[in-house]
Amino acid sequence: MDNDSRIRVQSPFPSINVTPLIDVLLVLLIIFMVISPRHEQKLPVMAPAPSPDGPPSTETLMLTMSGELRLELNSKAITAEELRSVLIALMEQRTLEQRTLFIKAPAQIPYDPVVALIDCAKGAGVVTVGLIQGEVKD
Predict the structure, then answer these.
(1) Closest Cα partner for 95 from 125, 67, 131?
(2) Is the pTM of this model over 0.70?
């Protein structure tokens, strides 16, 4: 027998059946899609109720910063040096739930002075600080 007269029977190439693997991956995908919405962490947002255009109530503390970095606490001019002692005195008269301060500043000013105000307020005992962006008259 020569080499030419021999008939070779080729066996099929071994291959992996991927259908069960894909089924398992799809099941895992569905499981993670169902579980993931339950693990979302949401921050509680306590937005103040809208009020008429009148002045804020005496309970609301509004610290306003002008474009020239001048400060007003409830429409009364105040310096940065006085701010901490005034806030400490006001916070001692309030319960923890009422220790809220809103800081209103124009969008054009740098962020650093606003962060310094937040730091001063937190050091004076303010629990919640709200930021309001708006145009402030100079």
Answers:
(1) 125
(2) no
Cα angle 96, 98, 101; round to 5: 110
Integer Cα distance of 78 and 74 in angstroms:
10
CA distance 19 to 22: 5
3-state secondary structure the chain: CCCCCCCCCCCCCCCCCCHHHHHHHHHHHHHHHHHHHHHCCCCCCCCCCCCCCCCCCCCCEEEEECCCCCEEECCEEECHHHHHHHHHHHHHCCCHHHCEEEEEECCCCCHHHHHHHHHHHHHCCCCEEEEEECCCCC
* Size (the chain), residues: 138
β-bridge partners, 131: 103
Task: Encode the chain (138 residues) as per-residue pLDDT tens digits.
Answer: 555 566 767 777 778 888 999 999 999 999 988 887 665 566 666 666 665 655 544 578 888 888 888 888 888 899 888 888 899 898 888 888 888 889 898 888 888 888 888 898 888 888 888 888 876 554
